[in-house]
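Appendix B, example 12.
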Amino acid sequence: MLLRAAIALVFGALTVFWGAPSVQVLAWALGLYLLATAFAVLRSGSAPLGLVAVVALGGVGALLLQSDAGAALSASFALLVLGLWELLQGLRERGRQVLARDWLISGVVGVGTAALLPFFIGLGAHALLGVAGGGAIISGVLWMLSGLSLRHDAGGRGNGGHGVPAEDVN
């Protein structure tokens, strides 16, 4: 969780502080963000391999297509699939898993970001990075708070707290 949060927050910070990004910056930033997110989701061990592959392919698509539309649509598809899976997990695990609420929120943010990206294609790389970065910052803060809370709850009690060992939070 903390790794995914750090990835999202670094990407979000990049989008905030890059004043006039080119199409290449958009493609590389989105592509690397999606590839790193796929790695973090894979490392969490909670997602199916097919989901990780779709997110990674979205990153590869953004890197290869090197256009506003290509990067935005690749990212939109990857974020939509990831967001829908998180929504489903959140609904399925509600009341049984402490992460259910976080999956629901992250899923809504992911689906929302995916739905908005295509509408900003005509506005260029800066707008697309703003939309994607905004979603990344929201989910990054969510996962950071969740990871730190679980780490605190599990601290010193081994597998205590919410049933998640501290190692799984990292």
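The helical segments are 2-17, 23-44, 49-65, 68-93, 100-116, 125-154, 166-169. The first helix runs from residue 2 to 17.
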